[in-house]
Each structure stands twice: as C-alpha cells, then as structure tokens.
Amino acid sequence: MKYLIVTHIPFQVVPGTQNIVIDGLWERDLAGLVASIGPISVAAPEIPQTGTMQTWGPTSVTVGPDFGVRFVGFPPLGSRLDFWKWPLTWRILKREVAAADLIHTSNFFPPYLGLSYAHREAVKLGKKTLFVIAEDFYDMLEWEWVRTSSSPAQYQSRLRTLKKLERLVGETAATASLTFLHTPAAVQRFRNVTQNGIAIRQPGHETDEVISLEQLEAKCRLLRQGAPLHLIAACRHKALKGLDFLIRAMSLLEQTGVRVEATLYGQGEDTEKLKALAAALGIAEQVRFPGALPPGKAIYAAIQTGHLFAMPHRTTDFGRAFFDAMAGGTPVLAFRTPASIDTVRDQIDGFLAPLDDVEGLAAAIRYCHEHREKLIAASHEARHRALINTRSLWFKLRTEWVKQIL
Question: Which of 144, 356, 135, 138 is nearest to 239 (CA)?
C-alpha cells in the first residue's frame, strides 16, 4: 500500500546529510504509523536549511533514511501573500497523489487551506482517502485568533478565513472514504456530514510508560498521610490553557488554609506573566516553573509525581494530555467542556469544574483535598484506563479500519 500524508507540519533537511528534522510529537505519530502500516510518504512544507524550524510541540528530533518515511517538500508559506507558491505546490501534490493508493489529509490551518487540493485530486482520480479532523479548530481559532484581532478589518478577514476552513472541512469529510473525528467537539460539529465517521481517542503512551502499581501505591500513601496536593501541568504557556485560573484558584485555597503546590512544565508567551501573577498573589513558593520537557518518558515520569494533572483549557480543543495524565496514574482536573465531558469520567478518573470559573476550580481541588480516598480511587482508575488504551492498540485498530476501506 502506497500511503501518502499531506500536512502543514514542516520538516527540514540537515545540511550535507539525508537526515530530517521534525517535530518530536510528530515523530512519535509517524513511528507508530510506520510500525503498523509500513513505509509511507509525507508531503509537507520544507523549511530551507538557512531558515528557522518552528516545531508544533516543545522539541524537535532528527530521523535518518531508515525511519521508514519518504519526505517530499513543497514551499513553506508565511502568509496569504505567498499565493505565488501554490502552482508549484499543486504540481508536487498532483504527482504524489497520482502515485499513492491512500491519501491522508487533515484540517489545515491558515495559510495552508490550499492543501485541501490533495483530497480533491484524490477524489477525482477515484483514490481511497482518509481525512482527520484533528481538533475543534473552529472554537480554538475563534477564541485565540479571531478574538484577538487588532482591528475590525482584521477581525472580519480572519473570521472569513475561519468560515472558509470550516466549509472546506465539511466538504472534505463528506467525500472522504473514512474520517477520523479526533475530539468529542469535532464529532458534534461534523458527524452529520461524514460518509464514514469514527470518533477516535489517540493516546501517545505504551504499556511500559504507565506508572507501576508500586509507584502508584507510594504516591497514594503520601496522600493518606496528609501531604499537600501536588498539581502538575505540562503544556505551552498560552492564555487558552487557563493556567492563570489555576494560580488564582490556588490563591483562594491558600486564603482558607488549604495549601496546594503546583509544577507547571512548559514555556511560552505567558510564562513570565504567570510567574508575576503567582508572586503578586503571594504563592510564588508554591508554584514552580521548571521549563519544557521532551515528549515521551521524561514527560510521563514528571506527570507520575503529581496528584492531579491540571488542564483548565478554555476552549473545546484538547490534545493527548488527558491520556498522558492517566498513564501517570494522575487524575485530570479540567474545565467542563464538550471535549472533557466525553473524555474524562468525572469523579471516576478525573474531576471537572465549571468553565472559566476560578471558584469552581478551587472547589474541585478542595474536594480532592478533603476526599482523598476518592482521589486515590480515581488514580487507580486512571492507571487502569491507560493500560487498556495504548498507542500500539490504537494503531492496530487504525490499520484494520484502513485496510477495510482499501
């Protein structure tokens, strides 16, 4: 099977070698796909060797020619003003689609909406297609991108682009052989337009990365002994992640005699603001900022040290962080949204609070502080769920579905 992925996630060739630099999280996905499907091709923006490689996640990795992926580059786009690059990109995609048996595309963020050409070309040629709606992009972009426009004209321009993206996604899902709906919110928004839509929850961990029963029991013993709750977060420090709500909730609890500690892994545009907020609220000593961690074992080891994994995300988007938390035997603490409601089982393997509600978030943390056996039971449920929901099991299912459509 000749499997082609068309994506906006970039890559870069290491000068003088056949090695490729790609995003660290993307590398894990590709490795899992190759292990289940076999060698594949990826058509993506190729960053010039003199350019700066911007990664999707916190780190980048270098892969060699034996990785099992053939990378095909097209010109990267900086904005819609780079429209003159599209004819070359479409020629490259036309060639690659014609040579493939299965064409895998996904919703493309601005300015890469034109990559939907690959799917249309595949449909025209009668090829099998896989379409992935990777997140609730509409809510996320409307909140983070459209809402923050600097002028009314920019607001209208961005809103038009977002509506065009939504229309393209709907049209693509309606003609795809198989559509993976990657979040509960995507299911709600697009399930009625898909030919063959399947809701998926893709974890990033394997069984050997799940916390051991002995480690979990040691963590639970500390909880029974009255240790302060330790909250863990691991994400980009951006406004939509809601970490400022978490810090404010900790401050409210401190004022009522409930001491909570937090370690906020990651970095981003809001890191210094978050540090200043913790200092202004008098809880700087309780909030640590150790920086970003690479994906994989390092992040799982860090999450295992926490009693609650804090993800007060303010949109209906979510990543694999929910499942990363469960692999650490660490129940999720999140705002109640369509994404979290259909992923976290409230008071079973996680705890949910009203959206954008500092007092509600503080109340959820207080509940865990006062009902430690409930928190311990949720920790065991989270670990159990992680053991039966691994990356290799997901890719096995994915491979079976793909072979069915072929």
Answer: 144
Q: Region 369-379: what's the mean pLDDT?
A: 97
Band (135; pLDDT cuts 50, 70, 90)? confident
Answer yes or no: do 216 and 309 share one domain: yes
Residues 279 and 154 in one domain: no
Specify whether 231 is located in the same domain as 378: yes
Q: Are residues 193 and 230 in the same domain?
A: no
Q: Are residues 116 and 164 in the same domain?
A: yes
Instruction: State the amino acid at position 306 in one-letter form.
Output: G
* Shared-domain flag, residues 53 and 101: yes
Domain count, the chain: 2
Q: Is the pLDDT of residue 56 over 80?
A: no
In the structure, what pLDDT confidence band is assigned to residue 57 with cuts at 50, 70 and 90? low
